[in-house]
Each structure stands twice: as structure tokens, then as C-alpha cells.
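From the methods appendix. Each design record in this collection lists the discretized structure first, followed by the designed amino acid sequence. Records were kept in a plain field format so they could be parsed without special tools. The example shown here is representative of the layout used throughout.

RECORD:
C-ALPHA CELLS (461 positions):
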């Protein structure tokens, strides 16, 4: 009996475990050194064979802690490919792998928003077409007080069912990039409605304000985790070995009434910490929060400004404004998510994929000259600005008393706008659409709206 037990112990083998990210239908980053990792029996040899390079077998010994990490060079050929893992008497195979570009789609409810939230499925613009070269991996919702090694989820091919369950912004972002680059696109969704930016950051990345003080500004409620680092630990940290091209970020609503004047510092710290963790200076593109009438006065406008100005300190970063894509400012979840995804992807196609056919930059005010009873704004745009509607809305002027009043605007030649108000005899400051619910109605020939703008630097309370 003793000899039989000894034989069983010698022949037994811990199972080889791969993370859910490394599974059938995955998209791996092309032309990159990607990491592979997992768990297995300590001291056993592991052999890894990729179908694109079968002669270059990777051999490594699993450590005593029963975990392993290695690297693998990927080519440009899209596939499909496979990877075989051989360890002792066990063999695992990952099949139908595509090599392309991987993008992380992260944030709160407006990124999480999918077809089941209220998309009009009868709108032909929102039709979903099966596409084998778009794949989704939605990270299962989870939170933890310490970083965890793995997350749950699975890679699925794009079809009407899978795409309708994934982020609508993410789907149309990936669809537009895939169509214009003919590159397989992998989309990883990590989002949770109602969550603040602090939950998505490692605690070490918080600015030099004590965690205790940070915590006092976190609005508690029971249906979403808002504790510092809880979502970073459980939904971002497990992804850090996976090579990605970039990230799109749609978050900020939960921070408007708390960090409206400091969100840019938090966002900068988040991006830097994620890039450090991933050991990858990946691209990062953010969506400025939409107009909503539930915020306290001017704070959403201030936070939009924070998101845009974060580009001054974050390389390989961009942001888009979506104030014109809101049909109802009483709805914090505007449903024109296709347009948000397209606007993001147009910017990425221009800046990341060097596709010159795209012009993603909105018109903007360059300078303002104050003369007598009016202000003269000079703008840059693709073609001349045109107003939708009979009156130009959104302009405000203030005098030395810093009180802003609605102002009348007139489009002039040579990219000029004259702005005046009977209540401001000598203007010293001008704002355009710098309000929580401001929806612009000036557009250039690209169809993009004139950007939110202000000349003043008054503190927003």
C-alpha cells in the first residue's frame, strides 16, 4: 500500500492554469514582445510553441511558487494562429488567435452603456454586422482591497449578440478603426457605472494629499465600489501583463461635484501609474463629460476643461468634446454613443494610425481682443463657422465685477466673431459654452462644434 501511495504522489501533477485573457479567440498585440503567464507545477519544464514560429520553442522552468512569466515575439500576420503549452503530461492549446491591435475601454456608466440601456435598434446607423476581426473581452465586475492576479472573462467574436452586450462606445470605436486599417482589433472592457477615478487608481498614485482626506470626498452608496484603488486592484491590475495599443477613457461624472478643479491632476496620475504598471507608454484618449443639469453650477464645465488641459502634461494623449451630442441635458446617459465612438476613433486614426484623410480637430477660439463695448474673437476652423438655428447661443461677457451675462454674437469675415451685451459696458472676460448644460450651435464644415472656451482664470466654486 505504501509503495502504491508513493507512486500516486510521483505521478500526480498540478494542473497548468492560464489566465482568462489567454484563451481561444484572443487578439494579441501584433509586432510586439508580448507576455505569457500562468500557473503550474513547481520545478516542471514548460514548453511553449507558437504556430507562427514552430521552430522557436520556448522552454522555461516553473518556479517553486508555481507561477511563470515569459515573453514571445509576435509578427504582423493576422492569422488565425495558435499557441500550444506542454507541461509534463498536460498539453493546452489556445486556438483562433488573431494578431492586431488591442485597446482598453475603461470608465464608468457612459462607457459601460450598451444596446440594452436604450439604443434604438431600428436605427440603421446602429446596426451590428458580424465581424471576425473584432473581438471583445469584458472584465467581470470585481473589487478588492489588494491587487489580484487574475480577472474573469472570455474572448468572443463580434456578432449582433456579443456587440450589443459590450460598450457601445467601444464597439463603434473598434469598428471604425478595423474598417479603416484592416487590422484585427481586440477590445477589453473594464467599466463600472457610478465609480470615481480614485477607485481606478493605485493608492500610491494619488496626489500628495492624504488618503484619508481623499476618502472624505468620496460619495458613498451601495451599488458601486468607490473606495480608493478597489477597481484598480481587481479590474486593471490583472491586465497589466497584456500588451495593449492604447486606452479610451470615459469617466468623470462621479467626480464633477468633488474634484472639478483638480481632476486633471488625478487623471495625469492615473495615466502615469497605468503606463508604469503595464511597462508600456500606450496611447490614452479621454471623453469630456456630457452636459447634465444635475451638477452644481459650472462644475461640469470646469471638469471638461481639466480633461482637455491634461494633455499639457500627458504625452500621447488626446480628448474629445461631446457637448453637441446630447439631445436631453436632463439625461446623464445620452444615447448617441455611436457618434462618441466615431469621434474618438477619428482622432485615433489621425494621430495613431497616420491616416491623413481624417480631420478630427474641432474649431477653436485662438484669441480675444476687448474693444469698447464688445469683444472680437478670432477662431480657427475648417471653413467658416455656421450656426444651427437663428441665434448663436453660448456666449457670455463679464466686466470688472466678474459677473457674466448672456451675450449676442455675430459671425464676421476672416474667422472673426463679434460679441456684445447691453449689460456689460466694458467687457474684460469672454466665455463660450462654459456652463454645465451648454450645448454649442456653431459648427465648421467637418460637422464638429466650436470648443468650450474662456479667457478668464476665475476659480470655480
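DESIGN:
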Amino acid at each position: 500500500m505504501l509503495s502504491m501511495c508513493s507512486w500516486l504522489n510521483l505521478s500526480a501533477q498540478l494542473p497548468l492554469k492560464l489566465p482568462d485573457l489567454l484563451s481561444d479567440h484572443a487578439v494579441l498585440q501584433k509586432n510586439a514582445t508580448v507576455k505569457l503567464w500562468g500557473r503550474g507545477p513547481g520545478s516542471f519544464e514548460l514548453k511553449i510553441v507558437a504556430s507562427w514560429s514552430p521552430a522557436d520553442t520556448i522552454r522555461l522552468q516553473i518556479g517553486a511558487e508555481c507561477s511563470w512569466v515569459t515573453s514571445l515575439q509576435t509578427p504582423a500576420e493576422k492569422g488565425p494562429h495558435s499557441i500550444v503549452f506542454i507541461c509534463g503530461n498536460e498539453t493546452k492549446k489556445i486556438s483562433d488567435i488573431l494578431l492586431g491591435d488591442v485597446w482598453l475601454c475603461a470608465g464608468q456608466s457612459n462607457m459601460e452603456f450598451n444596446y440594452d440601456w436604450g439604443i434604438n435598434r431600428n436605427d440603421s446607423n446602429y446596426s451590428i454586422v458580424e465581424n471576425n476581426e473584432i473581438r471583445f473581452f469584458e472584465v467581470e465586475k470585481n473589487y478588492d482591497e489588494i491587487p489580484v492576479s487574475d480577472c474573469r472573462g472570455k474572448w468572443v467574436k463580434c456578432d449582433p449578440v456579443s456587440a450589443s452586450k459590450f460598450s457601445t462606445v467601444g464597439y463603434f470605436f473598434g469598428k471604425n478603426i478595423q474598417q479603416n486599417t484592416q487590422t484585427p482589433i481586440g477590445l477589453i472592457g473594464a467599466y463600472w457605472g457610478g465609480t470615481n477615478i480614485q477607485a481606478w487608481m493605485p493608492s500610491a498614485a494619488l496626489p500628495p494629499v492624504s488618503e484619508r482626506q481623499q476618502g472624505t470626498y468620496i460619495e458613498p452608496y451601495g451599488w458601486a465600489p468607490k473606495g480608493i484603488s478597489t477597481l484598480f486592484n481587481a479590474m486593471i491590475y490583472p491586465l497589466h501583463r497584456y500588451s495593449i495599443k492604447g486606452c479610451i477613457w470615459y469617466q468623470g461624472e462621479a467626480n464633477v461635484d468633488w474634484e472639478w478643479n483638480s481632476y486633471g491632476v488625478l487623471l495625469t496620475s492615473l495615466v502615469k501609474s497605468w503606463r508604469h504598471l503595464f511597462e508600456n507608454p500606450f496611447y490614452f484618449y479621454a471623453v469630456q463629460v456630457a452636459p447634465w443639469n444635475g451638477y452644481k453650477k459650472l462644475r461640469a464645465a470646469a471638469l471638461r476643461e481639466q480633461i482637455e488641459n491634461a494633455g499639457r502634461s500627458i504625452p500621447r494623449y488626446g480628448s474629445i468634446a461631446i457637448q453637441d451630442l446630447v439631445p436631453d441635458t436632463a439625461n446623464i446617459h445620452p444615447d448617441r454613443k455611436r457618434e462618441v465612438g466615431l469621434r474618438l476613433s477619428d482622432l485615433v486614426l489621425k494621430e495613431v494610425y497616420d491616416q491623413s484623410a481624417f480631420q478630427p480637430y474641432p474649431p477653436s477660439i485662438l484669441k480675444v481682443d476687448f474693444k469698447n463695448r464688445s469683444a472680437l474673437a478670432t477662431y480657427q476652423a475648417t471653413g467658416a463657422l455656421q450656426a444651427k438655428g437663428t441665434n448663436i447661443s453660448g456666449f457670455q461677457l463679464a466686466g470688472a465685477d466678474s459677473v457674466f451675462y448672456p451675450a449676442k454674437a455675430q459671425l464676421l469675415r476672416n474667422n472673426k466673431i463679434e460679441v456684445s451685451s447691453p449689460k456689460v459696458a466694458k467687457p474684460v472676460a469672454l466665455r463660450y459654452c462654459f456652463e454645465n448644460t451648454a450645448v454649442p450651435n456653431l459648427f465648421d464644415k467637418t460637422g464638429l462644434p466650436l470648443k468650450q472656451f474662456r479667457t478668464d482664470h476665475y476659480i470655480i466654486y
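APPENDIX NOTE: The two ends are 79 Å apart (CA to CA).
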